[in-house]
Backbone:
């Protein structure tokens, strides 16, 4: 997997009052394709976040605990109380006190990296955060498209459930018995999850064709078949925009 491609567009905010430590982390992650912001303490980080919106808002935050003006505990508590978009928080800590870990988790931290930082471990922790954020985007995409499809499709919920069920069976069977396809179990599951949207391209088909009670003419049938092409292009563009590794 090309990690630089996988990580591109993922913005990470690094918060640490130790400028050497912060610069080392920032430069390492930039080389891995991440888009980096830096802050010297919690207050500085909150000021930066106020200026962010949309794609400029960081999805992952690395924060030290012991900093002047606003420490990591205060920052996490303030962020979780006021954030508009969920961010994945990794705490950078030299504390061995289990109470500190419990306190961070109770405030909303997602993961920990202990100092002195091992860069390879940090990268792996970050990949966990990337996967969580991609899953969130993935589920939001499915939910939004499903609502859109409901307005146009006359298929029943049972039909969609059957499609997902059979797609899952076929996908998992292919992943086991057709290794040449390189279809992993996770890929098969992902395909099954989006399978209820197999007719999403019908949103672009005109009502007089989509809901015509009589038999379609040859020309109308050709127009109807375009929904598969339209749906495929829609998904391709969405996956490409989110830098999904299946491209």
Residues:
């Amino acid at each position: 997997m090309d990690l630089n491609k996988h990580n591109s567009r993922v913005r990470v905010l690094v918060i640490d009052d130790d400028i050497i430590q912060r610069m080392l982390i920032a430069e390492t992650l930039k080389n891995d394709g991440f888009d980096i912001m830096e802050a010297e303490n919690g207050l500085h980080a909150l000021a930066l976040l106020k200026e962010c919106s949309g794609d400029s808002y960081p999805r992952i935050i690395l924060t030290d605990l012991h900093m002047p003006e606003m420490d990591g505990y205060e920052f996490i508590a303030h962020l979780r109380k006021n954030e508009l978009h969920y961010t994945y928080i990794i705490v950078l800590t030299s504390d061995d006190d289990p109470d500190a870990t419990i306190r961070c988790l109770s405030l909303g931290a997602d993961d920990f990296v202990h100092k002195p930082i091992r860069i390879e471990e940090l990268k792996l922790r970050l990949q966990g955060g990337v996967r969580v954020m991609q899953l969130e985007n993935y589920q939001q995409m499915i939910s939004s498209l499903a609502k859109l499809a409901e307005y146009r499709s006359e298929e029943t919920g049972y039909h969609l459930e059957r499609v997902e069920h059979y797609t899952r069976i076929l996908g998992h069977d292919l992943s086991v018995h057709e290794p040449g396809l390189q279809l992993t179990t996770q890929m098969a599951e992902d395909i099954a999850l989006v399978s209820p949207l197999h007719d999403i391209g019908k949103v672009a088909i005109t009502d007089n064709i989509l809901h015509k009670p009589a038999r379609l003419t040859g020309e109308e049938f050709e127009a109807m078949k375009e929904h598969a092409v339209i749906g495929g292009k829609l998904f391709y563009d969405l996956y490409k925009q989110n830098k999904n590794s299946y491209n």
The chain has a mean pLDDT of 84. The longest strand covers residues 88-93. The beta strands are 11-15, 35-39, 60-64, 88-93, 111-114. The radius of gyration is 23 Å.
